[in-house]
TrEMBL record, chain A:
Protein name: Nitrile hydratase subunit alpha
Organism of derivation: Modestobacter caceresii
GO molecular function: catalytic activity; transition metal ion binding
Keywords for the protein's UniProt record, in alphabetical order: Metal-binding
Superkingdom: Bacteria
Boundaries of every Nitrile hydratase alpha/Thiocyanate hydrolase gamma domain copy: 10-194
From TrEMBL, chain B:
TM regions (residue ranges): none
Protein name according to UniProt: Nitrile hydratase beta subunit-like N-terminal domain-containing protein
Location of the Nitrile hydratase beta subunit-like N-terminal domain: 1-92
InterPro entries listed in its UniProt record: CN_hydtase_beta-like_N (IPR049054), CN_hydtase_beta_C (IPR042262), Elect_transpt_acc-like_dom_sf (IPR008990)
Annotated Gene3D superfamilies: Nitrile hydratase, beta subunit (1.10.472.20)
Top-level taxonomic group: Bacteria
Parts forming coiled coils: none
Length: 196, 98
């Protein structure tokens, strides 16, 4: 992809703007590379998986998490303050009655400082437009068939408020350690387009 | 009145496509755009709300035709001009010279 004409053209444009900003003192040498390294070393879905595993293993933590996620995630050494500004995190728990799914219809709001970049489909107009109108159909396309009696709650993220789904603990996972439980959790599970 | 970014409920977009093992960025320049934006916000050249607004008021056809980070770069370019950091001519790359 990086070799095609469109991409090489915008690469040149971005480089040009960087050089211009450096010459005007608005960008330090090496700053861009440092920021990229920092970003790539920052958020990851594994952080969300750790939060979920702790909530499955410790009902008291689950309760605190659902009441005030920004405070509770500090118990597992995480925070929402890693990005450009701290956002409110709300954790929504799946139950037998209700399944939760997250979207940002207006742009791409996502707990990026915690979970790293969102997948492209999350940012696509296709997902943003449809999941609020036909969530059950969208989830079916993702391979998630919910019982007809299960309600679906769609949470529309905003600049100030980000959401994380707490999936239901899989059956038969009783004997697993917290680390093993975390290994069951996927990024799609944290968004709500997968069961776990 | 809603802007083009307000797509919730809108019909007519293509199918949702999942990319297996998707990398964080699809080209180096995308990572550079992300870093550039963070640096400019940190320096107070503009804020996060202004950045989002600059994407949302892109011309409709440009918004729909652009990739995610192309939108970001267009918004950054718009704000650099509006904030008086550089002129549009200074930001433009001469296809033959650059």
């Amino acid at each position: 992809m990086s070799g095609d004409h469109g991409s090489s053209r915008i690469s040149a444009q971005v480089r040009h703007v960087e050089t211009l900003l450096e010459s005007r003192g608005l960008l330090a040498a090496g700053e861009v590379d440092g920021r990229i390294d920092e970003f790539l070393a920052g958020g990851t879905p594994a952080n969300g998986a750790r939060i979920v595993a702790r909530a499955w293993a410790d009902p008291g933590f689950a309760e605190r998490l659902l009441a005030d996620a920004n405070t509770a995630i500090r118990e597992v050494g995480l925070s929402m303050a890693g990005g450009l500004q701290e956002q409110r995190l709300k954790v929504v728990a799946n139950t037998a009655e209700t399944h939760n799914v997250v979207v940002c219809t207006l742009c791409s709001c996502y707990p990026i400082a915690l979970l790293g970049p969102s997948p492209s489909w999350y940012k696509s107009e296709a997902y943003r437009s449809r999941v609020v109108r036909d969530p059950r159909g969208v989830l079916t396309e993702f391979g998630l068939e919910l019982p007809a009696g299960t309600a679906i709650a769609v949470w529309d993220a905003s600049a100030e408020s980000r959401y994380l789904v707490l999936p239901r603990r899989p059956e038969g996972a009783a004997s697993l350690t917290e680390a093993e439980l975390a290994g069951l959790v996927t990024r799609k599970g944290l968004i709500g387009t997968a069961a776990v | 009145m809603s802007r083009i970014n307000d797509v919730g409920g809108m019909a007519g977009f293509p199918a949702i496509v999942e990319e297996p093992d998707e990398p964080p960025f699809h080209a180096d320049w995308e990572a550079h755009v992300l870093a550039l934006n963070g640096a400019l916000i940190k320096r107070g050249v503009y804020n996060l709300d202004e950045f989002r607004d600059a994407q949302e008021r892109l011309p409709v056809q440009q918004y729909l035709g652009a990739s995610y980070y192309e939108r970001w770069f267009a918004a950054i370019s718009t704000l650099l001009v509006e904030k008086g950091v550089a002129t549009a001519d200074e930001l433009a790359v001469d296809d033959h010279g650059a």
